[in-house]
Amino acid sequence: MKKIVIGNWKLNLDHLEAIQLLQKLNYSLDVNIEDKIDILLAPSHTSLRSLQTIVDADSLKIQISSQDVSAYTEGAYTGEVSAMQLQKLNITYSIIGHSERRLVFGESDELINLKVHNAVDNNLVPIVCFGEPEENRNSNNYLPYLLNQVNLAIKGLRKDKVNEIIFAYEPIWAIGTGKVASVENTIEVLSAVKKEISNKPFYDEEKTRFIYGGSVSPTNASELLNTKIIDGVLVGGASLDTDKFVQIIKSIKL
Ligand code: 13P
Q1: Is the dihedral of CA 50, 101, 8, 190 positive or negative?
Q2: Would you give the DSSP letter of residue 128?
Q3: How far apart, in whole angstroms, are the C-alpha atoms of residue 192 and residue 147?
Q4: 97 pocket-lining for ligand 1 (C-beta < 6 Å)
Q5: Which of 8, 205, 211, 213 could make an SS bond with 170 (beta carbons 3.0 to 4.6 A apart)?
Q6: Which of 65, 175, 225, 233 to mutate to test the pocket of ligand 1 (most atoms within 8 A of CB)?
Q7: Which whole number is the average pLDDT over 238-246?
Q8: Model confidence over 206-240: pLDDT tens digits?
Q9: pLDDT tens track for 29-47
């Protein structure tokens, strides 16, 4: 399985800074490394067009993802950006259900499920995030909680519509805290999710990826990324620093 490294820039950088960071990253990467590793950047909506224009014009192999997508297709939904609008920009991925969307913006499992359907209907690959809060981890009840979150996010997905899907385990207690989940924790969760998903009609062993996010850094990336079941990482803070992001990418043993 081709590994994937995704930089989630969150609410950082204006479009000019985003262009600079994309170009710096492109110059810092080994030639053709993107043939062996999928490298994605998820900037704010305002930078999507600028970055995708550069990617298309210069035939870069770095790929662009949105950080979110609307559950609705069109109409009176002020502030929303639809999957179709993203697809028209040649954007091919969208993060959906990030814990910051769930917690800060009150996104429900039902809303996230609608977003996943809309993404898939418009040929966007959903990067479906799920993760438990610290209380839940401490109560040792996290596996049923996580499986339920995953099942609700993908409810009703039809086999013929799903080309590829990425499941991102992001324990809430590990996001932006410097506390990374242990490789054993991550293997336990991703194995359970993989087992659950492998019964679904759309599961494709060659294409469905299972990744980890939460305080990924150059220090812990190698262990995570060189573990077989972990197909990649979703990086927040460290993706804003090109040197750190490149070190994370380079830690993959090819
Ligand atoms: P940090 O890498 O900053 O912990 O963020 C993780 C994350 O939320 C990526 O989506």
Answers
A1: negative
A2: E
A3: 8
A4: no
A5: 213
A6: 175
A7: 98
A8: 999 999 999 999 999 999 999 999 999 999 999 99
A9: 998 999 999 999 999 999 9
Please tell me the distance from the alpha carbon of residue 172 to that of residue 97, in angstroms, as a whole number.
12
The token pair that represents 121 in the structure block: 């209907």
Give me 144's structure tokens. 């049923």
Q: Which residues are catalytic?
A: 98, 170
Confirm or reject: Cβ of 235 under 6 Å from ligand 1.
Answer: yes
Cβ pair 191, 229 in contact under 8 A? yes
Query: By C-alpha distance, which of 213, 206, 204 is closest to 181?
Result: 213
What amino acid occupies position 149? Q
Nearest-atom number in ligand 1 for the CA of 99 is 8
Query: In this structure, are residues 158 and 144 in contact, taking their beta carbons and an 8 Å threshold?
Result: no
Spatial contact of 16 and 49, defined as CB atoms under 8 Å apart = no
* pLDDT score of 188 more than 80: yes
Residue with tokens 């429900």: 108
For residues 154 and 134, give the distance between their C-alpha atoms in angstroms, rounded to a whole number.
Answer: 24
Q: How far apart are CA 91 and CA 67, in angstroms?
A: 11
Measured in Å, residue 238 CA sits from the centre of ligand 1 at 8
According to DSSP, the residues that pair with 166 across neighbouring strands are 127, 209
For the chain, list the strands marked E by DSSP. Answer: 3-8, 37-42, 63-66, 93-96, 125-130, 166-169, 209-213, 232-235
Given the structure tokens 């490298």, which residue do they identify? 39
Tokens 């590829």 belong to residue? 164
Cα of 230 vs centre of ligand 1, distance in Å, is 16
Per-residue DSSP letter, 69 = -
Give residue 120 CA to ligand 1 midpoint distance, Å: 24
